From TrEMBL:
It holds the Pfam family NPH3. The keyword Chloroplast does not apply. One of its GO terms (biological process) is protein ubiquitination. Pathway: Protein modification; protein ubiquitination. Keywords: Coiled coil, Ubl conjugation pathway. The keyword Lyase does not apply. The lineage of its organism: Eukaryota, Viridiplantae, Streptophyta, Embryophyta, Tracheophyta. Residues 185-473 form the NPH3 domain. This is NPH3 domain-containing protein. Belongs to the NPH3 family. Residues 551-594 are annotated as: Disordered. Residues 509-536 form a coiled coil. It comes from Gossypium mustelinum. Residues 28-98 form the BTB domain. InterPro entries: BTB/POZ_dom, NPH3/RPT2-like, NPH3_dom, SKP1/BTB/POZ_sf.
Amino acid sequence: MAFLRLGSKSEIFHREGHTWVCTSGLPSDICINTGEMSFNLHKFPLLSRSGLLEKLIEEYSNGEGSSLNLRLDDIPGGAKAFELISKFCYGVRMELTAYNIVSVRCAAEYLRMTEDYGDGNLVMQAEAFLNEVLGNWSDSVRALEACEEVMPQAEELHIVSRCIESLATKASTDPSLFSRPSSGRETRPNVSFLSLLLYRRLILAIESRGLRPETIAASVVHYARRYLPLMNRQSSFDDVNSTVTNMPNTCEADQRALLEEIVGLLPNKKGVTSTKFLIRLLRIAMVLHTSPSCRENLEMRVGAQLDQASLVDLLIPNMGYSETLYDVDCVQRILDHFMLVQQAAALATPPGIAEEGQIMKGSPDSLTPITMVANLIDGFLAEVASDVNFKLPKFEALAATIPDYARPVDDGLYHAIDVYMKTHHWIADGEREQLCRLMNCQKLSLEASTHAAQNERLPLRVIVQVLFFEQLRLRTSISGWFFVSDNLENSQNQINSAAAQQQRDNGGDDDVKQRVSELEKDCSSMKEEIQKLMKTKRSWRNFTRRLGFNRKSNSCCPKGPKASKLRAVAPSSGNRQQNSEKIEVVPPETLKVN
């Protein structure tokens, strides 16, 4: 840390309670009071250096030899600053540092300690040392922090703007200076110690010089954790509400203003601030009853990067008048904004890059965020579905916001629907039908289909659909086996023909012979694979005969009210071109359930 020693005389001041006494051997003829401190000094050393003291002494003196009492309550820096100025006037050794230079510079200006009252007066020397302080990052931070004690005078002398300008310039040149130390004892002052007013001005100045948003966001997050007590609470929100209730109104108002300012300082770039932190701010904003614009700002930020959130993050306690435990309306607004961002990104894609189908459904890479959000919302629905106060229209609105293509599998949505129907067992059959239309039975996994086929809470139509698609899936699997077997047989003949033709065309070439030899080896390997598949093919044929797929079966007589009718028809001899049986699948719409 920079410092400057002025004066050469040894210490002649000592303190007695709230009084400073000069022990130069001469009796004191002036007493200057500032705050609670008194300074018993001599007129001549003071008036020879200060234009203000010279004027006051002339105005209030009653004659030579008379003592004088003056009050200087308005002096910047108070008694501490005047103590250093008194030592300077007497030529006593004193030390200027980054911590006291601002108050000394302002006090010297207040007392008019210019070159008109002696060469090398305090204004000039303090100004020179201040320029030296502003050349160093750490000292500039200390000086800016010290400005808060003498803010009006520091603003008038442009010391605040000079400190901010110095820090912003250095941060743009070396961004590591602005980074917070990761661990251990801090080796340099951190800007998070500044008041909100100065911190905001510094952030805006640094941002205008192009510092990376990630660096700015990290600093703002650190500042929020330091000055927002609710950010660091790990307990339940019942305790948080209790804390806010017991908080003085002035303190709550200060916290509310601080949070709104922090939200305004966060960079707008997507992803530079974690979603977890943004949702935490949103929760606190609800507790502190910040302005609607502040909460809307946070909801939009969360919505823009909703794919980075976790289920626990979305379980936002309800602070409003709704009867549900969690704030479903807030999650709906966040999800709506996410979908708007996705649609805007899709429409902004140049037509030459994305085909028409990709604009509607997205490429595999663009599907990743929306698929993650679909899984997240399905998990949220399953979590809040057990709330008896969760109304069906809100469930449907939240589930329907996710487009069908975003869910590769509908198992999560089926689970949420099942939990809702189990908890809300009193809903009518029509409402159950309406609820089940949200999911696609064709996109249920084998495990989910098995569960759904035995689920008594589902409408009969849904169970029939599940069984139909399971039958269709079985038919596709069996046909696929036979199709692969026939393709392998055709591949063998093609390889043999190609090898023979290659040998005829290039019979004397050694390289060609080597290729033919390699093809023959590949052909032998494929023959072995074909023989294995043929055995598998015969096994499948026996399996289908046992299931009755090669003969017409009688209609099933269901024992219970929930059953479907399946029938298989044996193919004619002319339909065996692919060496596979044909299975006729009866759509569920044509079935009549007794």
